[in-house]
Specification:
368 residues; mainly alpha
Length: 368
């Protein structure tokens, strides 16, 4: 007698699935770290040149004879090192998001994938755009303003470490601020709000973007305004895009939608869930089909009998279909005959004649 196969322990399958996900997460994190390391090693020989390019918006506005300084001993090495490491992370953002997407995507529905992919790509491009706007537009303006307002006798000599912290804060502020259209579209897509409600709250949004600009930028009106105005403009762009998206969805629903009666007996299937449809596909209803078939058969039989009677009477009369009320009455009559047992019309007449003869004979008999 062969031995029985060993049964897996309860929860072993779930444990194996969890471990496989953890292994996949570890592998993807290692790939992300490796990508950052490769870019960092490629850029590190040019660390000083990269820092010089970053400091150029300030250097061109320094008074003649002034320069930047390093007040810490290890700053000339650590600050370019820190800059190159951050630059490697920024440049590998598309690959990092790709690895995160590869880990999360199998657990999403198709409609969620269709929504997430454009948002990830557009958010990355908008973040890069915000950083470029800060470097090419904001830095020259605010550094020209700061250096020109120095009191007489004060030499402007900025520390390289504090300058790096300052520009990193501005890069992050403008990069995040340029995500305003993505945030607006997400709020509308998730049903949290509508474009009409957002448009009604426009005054509060304007005040909010100026408050954010005041908090995230240095305490000057120029940088605050340069951050608040693009955020307001991007909010209007996001509002316009959300309205276009909402109209397109309504138009698609109107074009592809069917009457609600077709979905009365519909049920959700796994295929519907995978496809991310907004309503279940109609399923065949056996009861409705049998009723329709019985009604059609009754109509055909009634039409045939009516046609035969009409032909025997007139010979050339045309066929007249039964109305809905006549058809229902015919169905009820057939159901009644089936319930009490069907009998031929000739037999019924014969039985009625015999009954009448017997009644007449009883009446003719003399009374006792």
């Amino acid at each position: 007698m062969s031995p029985k196969p060993e049964q897996p322990a309860p929860g072993a399958q779930g444990e194996g699935t969890l471990l496989s996900h953890l292994f996949e997460l570890r592998n993807r994190l290692l790939r992300m770290v490796l990508a950052i390391l490769v870019v960092f090693l490629a850029l590190f020989p040019f660390a000083n040149q990269i820092y010089t390019a970053l400091a150029d918006p300030l250097m061109v506005h320094l008074p003649e004879g002034s320069s930047m300084i390093a007040i810490e001993v290890a700053a000339p090495f650590l600050i370019p090192f820190k800059l190159v490491l951050l630059l490697a992370v920024v440049l590998t953002i598309p690959y990092l998001l790709y690895q995160l997407w590869g880990f999360v995507a199998p657990g999403l529905y198709k409609h969620e994938k269709r929504l997430a992919a454009p948002l990830v790509i557009s958010s990355t491009l908008l973040f890069y755009t915000g950083m470029a706007f800060a470097y090419f537009v904001v830095f020259p303006l605010i550094f020209a303003f700061f250096t020109s307002t120095a009191p007489e006798g004060v030499a402007v000599m900025t520390d390289i470490a504090r300058y790096l912290d300052f520009v990193i804060m501005l890069f992050l502020a403008f990069g995040i601020a340029f995500e305003m259209p993505i945030a607006t579209i997400l709020l509308v897509s998730l049903g949290v709000t509508t474009p009409e409600k957002l448009a009604q709250k426009r005054p509060y949004v304007i005040i909010g973007v100026f408050v954010i600009g005041m908090v995230l930028t240095p305490p000057d009106i120029i940088s605050q305004t340069l951050l608040a105005l693009p955020m307001w403009l991007l909010f209007e762009i996001g509002l316009l895009l959300s309205r276009i998206m909402q109209r397109r969805r309504a138009r698609e629903a109107a074009e592809t939608g069917e009457s609600e009666a077709q979905y009365d007996d519909a049920e959700w299937s796994q295929e519907d869930i995978d496809e991310g449809v907004s309503r279940p596909k109609p399923r065949p209803n056996p009861l409705r089909e049998r009723h329709a078939a019985a009604k059609a058969a009754a109509a055909a039989s009634a039409a045939g009998s009516g046609s035969a009677k009409s032909d025997s009477a007139t010979g050339d009369d045309e066929y007249r279909p039964l109305s809905d009320a006549e058809m229902d009455a015919e169905l009820d009559r057939l159901a009644d005959e089936e319930a009490r047992g069907w009998q031929a019309p000739e037999d019924d007449k014969k039985g009625e004649g015999e009954q009448k003869d017997s009644d007449q004979g009883d009446q003719d008999k003399p009374r006792a």
